[in-house]
Amino acid sequence: xxxxLQTASKYIFAAxxxxxxxxxxxxxxxxxxxxxPDSLVNxxxxxxxFDIAAMCWALSFVFGSESxxxxxTSAIGFVVGFVGTLGMVAAEVALSSGMIETGDxxxxxxxxxxxxxxxxxxxxxxxxxxxxxxxxxxNVGIARGEIVTEAIQQATRQLDEQKAELxxxxxxxxxxxxxxxxxxxxxxxxxxxxxxDPKRKYQQTTFPILEEQPKPGAPFQDGSAxx
Length: 227
Prior knowledge:
This protein has helices at residues 2-35, 40-63, 68-97, 102-129, 132-182. It is an all-alpha fold. Helix 2 (40-63) crosses helix 4 and helix 3 packs antiparallel against helix 4 (102-129). 15% of the residues are buried.
């Protein structure tokens, strides 16, 4: 008899849980119908944001979390969905009983729907970002970026301190290249470089070509021998 009661209690409790969830979803649906009277799609999405969201975050907390961040986001998501569901149920009960008018609470229902949707979206991204592998990649990437930034700053400071010395090592090559480009490089680097006078007229001087005297005993061009 005891085993029978234990088994029956499980089914009874499961049926009770289903009935409670059905009641909550029914009241939430009625409350959402006041916000979206002509849109069945938005009504379904509203149930997802409230009743179904609370159940999903609860399952994620128990079975789908591997890090502290994921447990925290799942718990917050469950609280947001559950409190939102209770808010919609309370609004529907108050409106149905005539305790308050629709105009007084209608805008707050709209604000609540927007806020809950935004919170669930942010928590969903946070839950994925706090996964162990993603969290490791993010932290390692940030650390690598800080190291590279520090290396760039150190290199900049070192170059700033040595810029006069480094400039001295390359300035002579720059000056020589400019002189070569302008045609001012002398044949002998030790000779002074005299600037050309643009007003001076230069004359071309020709020198006579002298024939080389033959050595004694060498034949001339006519065949005779030199004395």
